[in-house]
Amino acid sequence: MSLHEILDRFQDYLIVELRLARRSVETYVRESAFFLDYLEENELSPLTIDTTGVIRYLIYRQTGKRELDQRTIAKVVSSLRSFFQYLVVTKLRVDNPGLLVEMPKMEHRVPGVLRVEEVEQLLANIDTDTPFGLRDRALFELIYSCGLRISEAVELSVRSLFLKEGIIRVRGKGNKERLVPIGGEAIRWLELYLEAGRPQLVRPQRRTDRLFLNHLGGGLSRKGMWKRFREIAGRSGIAAKVHTLRHSFATHLLEGGADLRAVQELLGHSDISTTQIYTHIDKEELQTYHHDFHPRG
After folding, report:
1. pLDDT in tens, 158-198
2. Ranges of the chain whose pLDDT falls below 50
3. Ordered domains of the chain (ranges, CATH)
4. What's this model's pTM, rounded to 2 decimal places?
5. Residue among 173, 178, 210, 280 flagged as catalytic
6. Catalytic: which of 61, 81, 246, 252?
7. Contacts of 115 (CB under 8 A, 6+ apart)
8. What's the CA gap between 210 and 202, in Å, rounded?
9. Cα–Cα distances in angstroms (integers) from residue 24 to residues 55, 175, 212, 239, 258, in the given order
């Protein structure tokens, strides 16, 4: 069996057997392809390489033209572990050398967060006199209102919305579905977009159920969302990324007294430790609390 055939069957294994999300499949296949190219160039075989050889490959990746951060290295290790596990399942190997490679420790960085006034300023800079403006206002209001990931917003269909009930059905990582409440302001802009914006973006020859459409009538892509948000943020004079709205959603809920477990469910986090990065308080607030409440403050 050629390396190309092994890679194709590995992709089928990820989709059919493991039922991984599309983006995870793409990452695992891409990283495994990089690994197989490396093996071929160095006249090595995925059927015989040991843990030391895998570690040498990781060193090669880290010392390449582009230095990889810990998160990327973790994705590479996960991809290789799955690839070798596929070889074990199909009896092409008897062991998984990737399991002995230590996963890099992840640094939990405190994400950038906007103040409520900054969110309002940013959203107010969207020109809603055009169908595209109505789309952008509804889109970014929804991301902030529901704490959506960009990938989740891309995949939304019109059928995902239950505006009368104030609920949206979201498909998150691992194809897990969750129901998230929608705030009143987001509902208002979604209704305006569905009434006056989306109908003008629909193209008869390209029917789609996607909620947010591009100028060709197809679903708005991740790249399209990034581009639109970058333009809006630049116009408003605020340094932020689309994902900053999700961070701000979580932080503002917790600051308002929301339960950490509830925020975990709304964000679609499988591990509450991921949600805990939003419980940060900046240094000025800490100094204020210490001064006001400590007996020696």
Report:
1. 999 999 999 999 998 878 889 999 999 999 999 999 999 99
2. 281-284, 286, 297
3. 3-100 (1.10.150.130), 116-282 (1.10.443.10)
4. 0.61
5. 173
6. 246
7. none
8. 10
9. 22, 11, 23, 29, 31
